[in-house]
Specification:
Elements: H1 2-10, E1 25-32, E2 43-49, E3 54-55, H2 67-83, E4 96-99, E5 102-105, H3 143-152, E6 159-162, E7 165-168, H4 169-172, H5 176-184, H6 199-217, H7 219-228, H8 234-249
Antiparallel strand pairs: 1-2, 3-4, 4-5, 6-7
């Protein structure tokens, strides 16, 4: 408890600024019980901290109206802790308080204070944060940060679905032609019953799958994508360009 109080004082004081992060600590005190039931009740220690709201119902349901903003602030806060060498190691609902939309992390009893986080140079803030696609745990670089992303649902789904098959979103969401190539290459589906597509049909399927993914998980970007290639106007031209590209790449017969 004394070590935790020193952590609040020495490493986290600049995060105790009244706008989220960690509560202020007012020190550790010994409480004397003048009417003990037995010798173990003579005295006990306690640490007094600032009132920072109520426990979050869960990291996906904090009780604040804007859940995305709350979760984003929590992710940014974990990064700030890691920049100071502090890994909490127990980021879960019982250790996260919510007050006026700001997250406060408490109970650093299991924290480590010499964490050299490989993600500490990431530059995030709650104004321009944009979640990435879900990586593998071993690719995330830091388990603490990986778990808080996981618990808050801030990762985008790893796969997009196209005509019954799943494809890696981070690879194909920006490259409909690459996804179309995969659909045309029946062997890449590892399915002997996979349908054989014409170039125009495959590109239309890829376009619709990417639009659906963007509408669900990247709504602003989904609008931009559809504005760029509206299904009823520019897709026809886009299909012709792709068909010409396929014909050019095909070996002469």
């Amino acid at each position: 408890m004394v070590d935790e109080a020193r952590l609040y004082r020495d490493k986290l004081s600049d995060l105790s600024n009244g706008t989220g992060c960690v509560p202020r600590s007012y020190g550790v005190y010994q409480v004397v019980n003048y009417r003990p039931h037995d010798s173990d009740d003579l005295s006990f220690g306690c640490m007094i901290i600032e009132d920072c709201g109520v426990p979050a119902r869960s990291l996906l349901d904090s009780g604040y109206a804007d859940e995305v903003l709350f979760c984003t602030r929590l992710v940014v806060l974990v990064y700030e802790l890691h920049k100071r060498g502090v890994a909490h190691r127990q980021i879960e609902d019982r250790h996260v308080l919510q007050k006026d939309g700001w997250p406060y992390i408490v109970d650093f009893s299991k924290a480590t204070f010499d964490h050299d986080c490989p993600r500490k140079s990431d530059n995030l803030d709650d104004r321009d944060y944009d979640g990435g696609t879900h990586p593998l745990a071993e690719e995330s670089g830091c388990r603490d940060i990986y778990e808080v992303y996981q618990e808050t649902g801030m990762w985008l789904p790893m796969n997009l679905r196209c005509d019954g098959y799943f494809w890696t979103a981070s690879v194909f969401v920006d490259n409909p032609w690459a996804l179309t190539d995969k659909l045309l290459d029946g062997g890449s589906l590892h399915d002997e019953m996979a349908p054989q597509y014409a170039a125009r049909q495959a590109l239309t399927l890829a376009h619709e799958a990417i639009c659906d993914y963007c509408r669900k998980y990247l709504p602003a970007r989904g609008v931009e994508y559809e504005d760029d290639i509206p299904i009823n106007i520019k897709l026809e031209k886009y299909c012709r360009e792709y068909e010409n590209e396929v014909a050019w790449r095909s070996p002469l017969k």
